[in-house]
Amino acid sequence: DADVTQTPRNRITKTGKRIMLECSQTKGHDRMYWYRQDPGLGLRLIYYSFDVKDINKGEISDGYSVSRQAQAKFSLSLESAIPNQTALYFCATSDSGIPYNEQFFGPGTRLTVL
Amino acid sequence: GDSVTQMEGPVTLSEEAFLTINCTYTATGYPSLFWYVQYPGEGLQLLLKATKADDKGSNKGFEATYRKETTSFHLEKGSVQVSDSAVYFCALTYSSASKIIFGSGTRLSIRP
User: Fold this and answer.
1) Residues of chain B predicted below pLDDT 50
2) A109 and chain B in contact, CB less than 8 A
3) What is the rounded distance in angstroms from the CA atom of residue A112 to the CA atom of residue A10?
């Protein structure tokens, strides 16, 4: 079984709709992240959480919100989706006990906003 | 600020060719350097890492050396295989940091 899972894997929605992407992990890591990937831009950080009570904005948080429901679950919401949020979204985890901040990625969710 | 620059792709090689993907970085401190690989339809996975200057990371026949004097971390492999076709990301991070700074990725295609 995968250590970091994301649901759904693909989603097509319309402008203005509310969308939630979910991430679960079985690695026991305390830190979780949401990134988006756009062609030619690498990955950009949206939000991150160092524990259940800690939520922080990344470099591109506008238009997004997150919820850390438990140590193992971190969801990303688009309150009112717009076409330029069409992208590949990745969840990642890391263990604060590892000194070099290695992150483990889920398989991604491909989101299309029409 | 910190940044990572890697060679643009796509890179297309024949099987058994020698591979180099260039990566340079700008850092205000002493980061750890990574290469991540993304196979088709999958998330990123760590390929190799180096945590201090002159360290050499290696895995699956790939190597990269942390060169502080040239601020580089070039990825090399002596003989590529079709199964190496993927997107490769150079990245840096600090041990106390919240995020990894990624390069824009280099798509590699290997012809049989």
Assistant:
1) none
2) no
3) 8
Using CB atoms, pick whichever of A41, A59, A102 lies closest to residue B104: A41
Q: Does B46 touch chain A (CB under 8 A)?
A: yes
pLDDT for the residue B96: 64
pLDDT of B98 reads 65
Q: Which residues contact B69 (CB under 8 A, 6 or more apart)?
A: none
The SS3 assignment for B63 reads strand
pLDDT of residue A1 exceeding 90, the answer is no
Please state, in angstroms and rounded to a whole number, the distance separating the CA atoms of residues A51 and A102.
Answer: 17
Alpha carbon distance B42, B39 (integer Å):
6
Asked if B76 reaches chain A (Cβ–Cβ under 8 Å), the answer is: no
* 3-class DSSP state of B100: coil
Residues of B with CB below 8 A from A2's CB?
Answer: none
